[in-house]
Amino acid sequence: MFTGGFDPVNILAILPEISLIVLGLLILGLDLALPEERRGILGWVTAGGLVLIIGLALAISRPGSEPILLWGGMLRHDWLGFAFKIVFLFAAAITALFSMDLFDSGRRGEYFLLLLAATLGMNLMASAADLIMLYLAIETTSIPLYILAGFLTKDDKSTESGFKYFLFGAFTSAVMLYGFSLLYGFGGTTNLYGLSQAFLEGGLSIGAILGSLLLILVGFGFKVSAVPFHFWAPDVYEGSPTPIAGFLSTASKAAGFAVLARVMLAVFPSIAVEWGAIVAALATATMTIGNIIALAQKNIKRLLAYSSIAHAGYALIGIVAISYLGVASTVFYLIAYVITNLLAFGIVALFGRVAGSDDIAAYAGMSRRSPWLALGMMVALLSLSGMPPFGGFVVKFAVFAAAIQAGMVWLAFIGVINSIVALYYYLTILKYVYLYRSEDEDKPLPVSRPYAIGLTVLSLLVILIGTVFAPWFSVASSAAAAIFR
Amino acid sequence: MTPLQIIFLITSVGILGSALMVVTTRNLVHAALWLVVSLFGVAVLYVMLSAAFLAVAQVVIYIGAIAILMIFAIMLTRRVAKDSGPQTNPNWTWAVVVAAALFGGLTWLLSSWNGFSTPIPELSSRADPLSQLGQALVSPNAYVLPFEVASVLLLSALIGAIMVAWDRRSG
């Protein structure tokens, strides 16, 4: 039983995950050993450790050009998973930097440990090739995030946000788990690639497969906050600590997309036309509703929540195309989106902490208080709205191109119209930042060192993606190649 | 109708009926006790599917540990273990419609599958599911990775629970 040699590549492939656990235990130990006033370095240790892990992963754990199934088919070691892993580790490092000023004292160790546990779950989500592994990975991501969203237990809004996230998450993951159990019943295996074989061989009605697919889509739709599973996003982002809101809207969403792309394209090629139509409808509704509700928002965290819902819609376009270019463009889109949105949330976190308000009106006169911060805001918002020369432009171009190549000009058209709508509310914020005056203009906005490092790196990356996009796109293409092989 | 089907029907009625009681009874301690009945019914279902280990785990973990812990939590935290508020909200008709549609849809979906009418195959008497399960959980060519990830998940859930529940100022 279960015989077969043990290949050391098994260990090399999960080296980033093992190092994450080691780093987490180190944080826990330091939290115990250090006196309370010196625990400020825990954030530096987390961020530095994550950067080290990224280096380690790039040096040792890179997958070959041929994808392989490891650990008895639990994981698939390929470029799709690997590219996403690097994105998650990077997002976690930035989030750790932005979180350092969040607390006055104490309770830091648990925070960073939970952040690392969630990152571990995302890494496994991106490479899981088995329903059991996938479900455990999703829960390992979600449960620490529920707690992180409600981390400020003295703050009613944060508690509400954590609890709301938990209730929505528990409900949708129960529905998704039911879908998984039906898939296992129909296909007779839990391996994603085995299921795909079973479905292609036929003998199952389309209705049965499509029904279980719909149940699974509930869970995935919640993770990527696609309409109609988006209701949690604005409330949770508004209440949770801002760096965590940034992490939720970027890494957690990207992890959902990694799973969505792999499961949809690997398991369900036999009903590609049907699910293509369903996901196209989801994408249209997500873009349109996200953007329209965002127009009316007064709170910047809620506005960014609706904007991130709309961005999930754009990224779905690439998946709907069901093509090599489509997947590559979605991965490319997510890389740029994660970096840009982290930048936006980082500035909001910094501003909210200093100014004590997340209202858009409070941003009046920001360019006079801190020109560099205002410049960062402009880079983030223009990139989100899809303006050249920033990252957001090329990636939007790529997803729309994928839709047109797949013969869905109408979808690209809806996307373009939505981008124009979105431009309005992004520019409204910039209007407050640059044109309006306020009485607080002479109060400076001090930028602490972790924020200075994080925001500079992110701004440079946003511009770099928009100008030198070939290397990024080639990574995204290798990720897509891993699926279509 | 085979004896197995009759036992299944009785068990299902028991599970669903006691589950209904869990959400409708106004006394929290009664709700916890009805939950024990419902969970026990699930253990009976496991036995019928020849999953002896799962049945034992169900009894020991869900009934022996979780339900009892709930009863203790109710006793220690609430002075009045009775709920007097309204039990439904104005949307309950919609909830009924959605639930009925979902049930109908899932029944139709399962009945279209040819496994729906297949009788349960007999396990060979020499099969040893328990040792297979044990080996599968620790074999690198089977489920050792999910097994280890589950421990990370439990550790972080534990730390999170302490974090949420422990008030540092009073601790």
Characterization of this structure:
The complex is a heterodimer of chains A (485) and B (171). Chain A has 20 helices and two strands. Chain A has 485 residues and is mainly α. Chain A has a domain at 270-485. In chain A, strands 1-2 form a two-stranded antiparallel ribbon. Chain B has two domains: 1-83, Up-down Bundle (Four Helix Bundle (Hemerythrin (Met), subunit A)); 130-171. At the A-B interface, helix 5, helix 6, helix 7 and helix 9 of A face helix 4, helix 5 and helix 6 of B.
DSSP strand (E) fraction of chain A?
Answer: under 5%
SSE class of chain B: mainly alpha
- Give the beta-strand count of chain B: 0
Largest sheet of chain A: 2 strands, antiparallel
Largest contact between protein chains?
A: A-B, 45 and 34 residues
End-to-end C-alpha gap of chain A: 30 Å
Helix and strand string of chain A, N-terminal first?
HHHEEHHHHHHHHHHHHHHHHH
Q: What does the secondary structure layout of this molecule look like, with pairings?
A:
The complex is a heterodimer of chains A (485) and B (171).
Chain A (H helix, E strand, L loop, with lengths): L8 H5 L1 H19 L7 H20 L7 E3 L4 E3 L1 H21 L8 H20 L3 H19 L6 H32 L4 H9 L5 H19 L7 H8 L2 H26 L4 H23 L5 H21 L3 H32 L10 H4 L1 H15 L5 H15 L3 H26 L14 H19 L2 H14 L2
Antiparallel strand pairs in A: 1-2
Chain B lengths: L2 H22 L3 H21 L3 H26 L14 H20 L17 H10 L5 H22 L6
Helix pairs in contact in B: 1-2, 2-3
List keywords for this structure.
heterodimer; A: 485 residues; mainly alpha; two-stranded antiparallel sheet; 1% strand; globular; B: 171 residues; Four Helix Bundle (Hemerythrin (Met), subunit A); 2 domains; 6 helices; 71% helix
